Amino acid sequence: MLExxxxxxxxxxxxxxxxxxxxxxxAIRIAYLGKKGAVTDVLKxxxxxxxxMKKQVGQQVNVLKDEIEEKLRLQAxxxxxxxxxxxxxxxxxxxxxIPSTQEIGSLHxxxxxxxxxxxxxxxxxxxxxxxxxxxxxxxNFEAVNIPKHHPARDMQDTYYLSNGQLLKTHTSxxxxxxxxxxxxxxxxxxxxxxxxxxxxxxxxxxASHENTFFQLEGMMIGDNISISNLIYFxxxxxxxxxxxxxxxxxxxxxxxxxxxxxxLDINCLICGGKGCSTCKQSGWLExxxxxxxxxxxxxxxxxxxxxxxxxxxGLGLTRLAMMKYGIKDIRVLNSGNLKALKQxx
Length: 345
Ligand code: DAH
What we know:
Elements: H1 2-18, H2 22-33, H3 38-45, H4 51-90, H5 109-122, E1 127-128, E2 134-135, H6 137-140, E3 166-167, H7 175-182, E4 191-200, E5 212-222, H8 227-242, E6 248-252, E7 258-267, E8 284-293, H9 295-300, E9 309-316, H10 317-325, H11 338-341
Parallel strand pairs: 1-4
Antiparallel strand pairs: 2-3, 4-5, 5-9, 6-7, 7-8, 8-9
The site of 3,4-dihydroxyphenylalanine has 12 residues, from β7, β8 and β9.
């Protein structure tokens, strides 16, 4: 019996050495280890042997079985390597220097404007952050001084999730986390952060309203930050983006997270101020709400309002891109219509 095991081993080794494909390896596996395989047969016959024989043969055949499994595995691996090697030899050489004939894609107009503003602000020492799109009610509302049942919540028709969280209605939702992340500014080194992001509100969609839109928010907090800093940064921002002088007007505006708060409007660049559907016939577009950060908001962010002041602004990035490129209908931006979207540089 022991000779049979020895013979099986030799036979197996010879067959495996000749195998040239995965199919052949599989056939060998079945011939030896399959239900009716040669090794399986020996294992089955153990029950008819006497105790001493059973012990000896059993031990040997089990060693052989393990050996066969390992050799099959190694042979399959070797086969893969050979296949790869052959494919590499057959492959055409690739010339990386040949110019592509494929059309190069283009950036979305909102991305272009966002990057442009990021570049301007980075050059003025701002850090770029991004906030989460799914937010807690606390971050989106409470932490920016909009407590439960405050009427300001009604202006932001919110998509709530079944777990009580929500899709952020404005980039201001990141203010608290950013203040906590960076902490109180060092003397002479104000905290300067820019945080663009996608926002969601349950709006009726028309030429100037979308349920998914982009804002770009900024904050500067330090030991001596005033409204004149705010106005300076807003002017730099707008003149750089439009690459010309734009007419602006500043009105008082109410936002619970700033005190005082302002609305910075720009003269509608689509109709030149005459009145059109984009500016709702008023000639002006609300573009840049801003103000001095409310002491409550600083306190909730872990920053002492007795020591520090700061400004914040929340730019309608979608609206700004429409103004810059003369896009009359906001729906184009989320349309995925490449013909319309790829024309911007
Ligand atoms: N979060 C406001 C909104 O979406 C926009 C805003 C207004 C942001 C004034 C600000 C700000 O930082 O100071 O309606």
